[in-house]
Amino acid sequence: MDRVRKILNAHAAYNRGYLGENIGVAILDTGIFPHADFGERISCFLDFINGRKRVYDDNGHGTHIAGIIGGDGGSSGGKYMGIAPRCHFIILKILDKKGNGNTENVVQAIQWLVRYKDLYRIRIVNISIGMVLQAESQERVRLLKAVEFAWDNNLVVVAAAGNNGPKEHSVTVPGISRKVITVGCYDDNREQIGRTMLKPEYSGRGPTEHCVVKPELVVPGTNVASCANQQGLYTKKSGTSMAAPMVSGSIALLLSKYPCFSPAEVKLRLYQRAVDLALPLSKQGWGMVDIGRLL
Question: Which range of residues forms the domain containing residue 196?
Answer without folding.
Answer: 2-294
